[in-house]
Amino acid sequence: xxxxxxxxxxxxxxxxxxxxxxxxxxxxxxxxxxxxxxxxxxxxxxxxxxxxxxxxxxxxxxxxxxxxxxxxxxxxxxxxxxxxxxxxxxxxxxxxxxxxxxxxxxxxxxxxxxxxxxxxxxxxxxxxxxxxxxxxxxxxxxxxxxxxxxxxxxxxxxxxxxxxxxxxxxxxxxxxxxxxxxxxxxxxxxxxxxxxxxxxxxxxxxxxxxxxxxxxxxxxxxxxxxxxxxxxxxxxxxxxxxxxxxxxxxxxxxxxxxxxxxxxxxxxxxxxxxxxxxxxxxxxxxxxxxxxxxxxxxxxxxxxxxxxxxxxxxxxxxxxxxxxxxxxxxxxxxxxxxxxxxxxxxxxxxxxxx
Length: 354
Hints:
Keywords: Cell wall biogenesis/degradation, Disulfide bond, Glycosidase, Hydrolase, Repeat, Signal
Organism: Lygus lineolaris
GO molecular function: polygalacturonase activity
Mean pLDDT: 94
Number of helices: 3
Low-confidence stretches: 10-18
GO biological process, one term: pectin catabolic process
Largest sheet: 28 strands, parallel
């Protein structure tokens, strides 16, 4: 049973905003922290190479973006932006853009080699509201949503479309881990990797989002013994991705994937596989026989519809024999290549090869 979400948007508005402070450079941001400012407007700011735009230490504040935010070029490991604390409202004003200019790092390799690439933005928030932000061209990885609690994320635009022709790779939309009571809604992701990659957490909702050009919506089990439980993914569109939706657990991974529901998901022109459920995942691709240790329990695939291209496959299921309590109702057209399935719980009917 999904827990009820706190209306964190209303909660954040309870904080009294007594003054405003405009930030054009990092020194001014540090001054805003010292002053205890509660309304900070970031205007046409350029972050020097190798530095992080760091919004820690601003509990109870509203941070709003106006104009264009850019970052200097350097090969380094880190994040271009960090939001960490409690009671934040983070929002974009009309006409703003947070531009990572990722083409400077792109080399078709992403995190697998080549240039050392920073991640775009890291969020570790409690009782907070993030909305109306526009991100463009992540160097690699998009938004890390990590150890968040009672957070609502609405109407974000993550636009890495340039990466389709300029070498973008591993430009994930949302990477979610160790979160509780988080809702991501009304967002648009155009990228070259997972639209959502959720590896652990409880009571997470991903709804009314549009995913274009990437690797689909994924729940990933078996990282460091993590548990993904009570996850609802609903009312989303997955357009021209190679995969529609998938649940994948790590080869030899330990943990639990339980209570995962995909409901009312429209697939459009998926090139490879509509629905994937596997138990032998590695970052380099599935390998070997699926392993036990991270069972997939109470999985629901309901009203998954749309089309897979002719040479693709509707369903691929390849898990160990510890899966249980699945409900499956898909209405996918096309995908004439049939693949064999393994480990489907008894009583569940899925169209597969033999």
